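Minutes, project huddle
Topic: does the predicted pose make sense with nicotinamide-adenine-dinucleotide bound?
PN asked that the exact inputs be recorded in the minutes so nobody has to dig through chat later. Recorded below.
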Amino acid sequence: MQKEEISNVTIPFIVGDGIGAEIWKGTQSIMDYAVQMAYNGQREVQWKEIYAGEKSYRQCGKYLPQETIETLQQYKIGIKGPLTTPVGGGITSLNVALRKALDLYSCIRPVKWFSGLPSPLNHPENVDVVIFRENTEDIYAGIEFPADSEGNLVLKSLLEEKFPFEYAKLRYSQDVGLDIKPISKQASQRIMRAAIQWALSNQRQKITIVHKGNIMKYTEGAFRTWTYEVAEQDFKDACYSKRVWLNTLIEKGKVKANSDKAKAIEKGKIYVDDLIADNAFAKAIANPGDFDIVVTTNLNGDYLSDAFAALVGGIGISPSANINHETGVGLFEANHGSAEDIAGVDKANPCSLMLSGAMLFDFIGWSEAASLMRTGIIMTIQSGNVPSDLHAQLSNSHEVGTAHFCELIIDNIK
Ligand code: NAD
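Predicted holo structure (tokens), as shared on screen:
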């Protein structure tokens, strides 16, 4: 959604659980301040609080009221703090429910190092990757059958009767939880299309499909096949597929050479290759500079984005956007969870939520405000005054509380 000419915008927001209130307070004031500085009163944000999570439950007895979903549909944008999901029982994830209700199929997570950020790498400047995580399917579909539930028993008896060979693969058929992992052609191809389009608009050179298709052949393996198809068919003039190139070599009986990426870049095309997930994780640590854009399934994307984030300061600093490119709805959120262990003690790093706010401004065409926010954050971190998570990783830094850190960012935007 581009709204370059608009002067006022209403942004619905969800404060979130745990550290949500602390990081939201600073984020809201920095977003307001950046708009004021960038547009000198010509543009303004009207904030509209909507509810989800514990605050919502306290207010109306519902964790995710329908009104919240409808407001996001109406205004097409929103920003949210983290929401708690209990482990092993209780309510299902509200984050997943929001993504599903609004069909926010692209989870876009940019991870980039800048000077001043801690890193375990010798060359952190090589880290500049954007992860496109498919957001609606996979194990997150929530088709779960607890051990000895009715559905579990029905599924097992169906397997036993109709597919005895598969049934025999259950190592223990008693007390076994079952999850279904749907991966469709449609969902795989729309995330790939979004990634290629984003690569074209942002002059990126490479897309790596990450999957575990050697083991889960008909879900993760199919994801690989279907995503390659988009590059090879819908975007054949813009993309150079490693799969096609390798097949051609094999057909011609030639040995594998190592010049395919160079060839693609020389031709001005986006080079599309793929990696098996475990290899991708190893390479993310050993050679993160090899990654430019990653397209992957939901669970891989969840793990991989936190792993990449750990290379440039951690989950406290990496932003996230959930977008449906057809309806134009975008929900921007902190990458991390509700961090109950540090809630209420002024120790939370607000940068992930703030940088997600900057992504929201870019999304609506308010790039000047986005850029001021990023500059303020970078300058403050470079001054060595940082929240506790960054302080723990930076030897020459001074720890400041969340609220003071936000004041320093405002000073640096001035
Ligand atoms: P978490 O991200 O909340 O915390 C993991 C670790 O990172 C903790 O030690 C925490 O203190 C630290 N941390 C996280 N954010 C930080 C920040 N901004 N500043 C400083 N330190 C920070 O992950 P978790 O403990 O696995 O999950 C807690 C809850 O959050 C769970 O209920 C989980 O389901 C939920 N969660 C929500 C989202 C979301 O809302 N999108 C994402 C992930 C987890």
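Observations noted during the meeting:
- The two ends are 29 Å apart (CA to CA).
- The chain is about 45% helix and 15% strand.
No decisions taken; revisit at the next huddle.
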